[in-house]
């Protein structure tokens, strides 16, 4: 099973402000849904809370070290990344996703094989959640698709896919 990140991050790696996305990019949300549908998603508690409900059509796995969290039926809770990865490996899928937040991305960086990054071409100065810096000597860009801003998309953005380079 391939373990992947999927994230939208600004030029300064911002991914969130007060537990919300700092932009409105409908095509990015469609890309996220199309890419993750039918596959397990692993996320931190704050990311789950920002969604407000489980993502339909996907096994939702939440990581939290706080034992006093109430989750809807069918949402799995783990307190370790290793246990959550072991659990999603039981699913009959070719790929599973880490979807945030910043701490989970940082924790999972050594384990992922692929990254889908929507690079949002702006800088978010008031961000409080960030995607970790990428050591590009370990990653190869294999695909990208550029988009310009329009009446529905405030910023230019680029879909990118990176594959881990085996050293």
Short description:
The chain has helices spanning 26-36, 45-51, 81-88, 102-108, and strands at 2-10, 14-16, 41-44, 60-63, 76-78, 95-100, 114-120, 129-130, 139-147, 157-164.
Primary descriptors:
167 residues, alpha/beta, Dihydrofolate Reductase, subunit A, eight-stranded mixed β-sheet, two-stranded antiparallel sheet, 4 helices, 10 strands, 20% helix, 33% strand, Dihydrofolate reductase, DHFR_dom, DHFR, NADP, one-carbon metabolism
Number of domains: 1
The SSE order reads EEHEHEEHEHEEEE
DSSP summary: helix tally: 4
How confident is the prediction overall: mean pLDDT? 96
Number of strands: 10
CATH class designation: Alpha Beta
Rg for CA atoms: 15 Å
Structural class of the secondary structure composition?
alpha/beta
Characterize the largest beta sheet: strand count, sense, and whether it forms a barrel: 8 strands, mixed
Tell me the overall shape. Answer: globular
- CATH fold type: Dihydrofolate Reductase, subunit A
User: Low-confidence stretches at least 5 residues in length (pLDDT < 50)?
Assistant: none
Roughly how many Å apart are the termini? 20 Å
Return the CATH architecture.
Answer: 3-Layer(aba) Sandwich
Percentage of β-strand residues = 25-35%
Percent of residues in helical segments? 10-25%
Query: Biggest sheet, strands in spatial order?
Result: 5-4-3-6-1-7-10-9
- Please identify which CATH superfamily we are dealing with: Dihydrofolate Reductase, subunit A
């Amino acid at each position: 099973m391939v373990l992947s990140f999927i994230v939208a991050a600004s030029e300064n790696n911002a991914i969130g402000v007060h537990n919300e996305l700092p932009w409105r990019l409908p095509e990015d949300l469609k890309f996220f849904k199309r890419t993750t549908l039918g596959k397990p998603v692993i996320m931190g508690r704050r990311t789950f809370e920002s969604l407000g409900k489980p993502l339909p059509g996907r096994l939702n796995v939440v990581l939290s070290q706080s034992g006093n969290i109430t989750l809807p039926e069918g949402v799995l809770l783990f307190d370790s990344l290793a246990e959550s990865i072991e659990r999603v490996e039981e699913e009959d899928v070719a790929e599973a996703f880490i979807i945030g937040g910043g701490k989970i991305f940082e924790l999972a960086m050594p384990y992922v094989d692929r990254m889908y990054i929507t690079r949002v071409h702006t800088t978010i100065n008031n961000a409080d959640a960030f995607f970790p810096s990428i050591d590009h000597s370990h990653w190869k860009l294999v695909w990208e698709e550029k988009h310009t801003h329009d009446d529905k998309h405030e910023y230019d953005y680029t879909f990118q896919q990176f594959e881990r380079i085996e050293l």
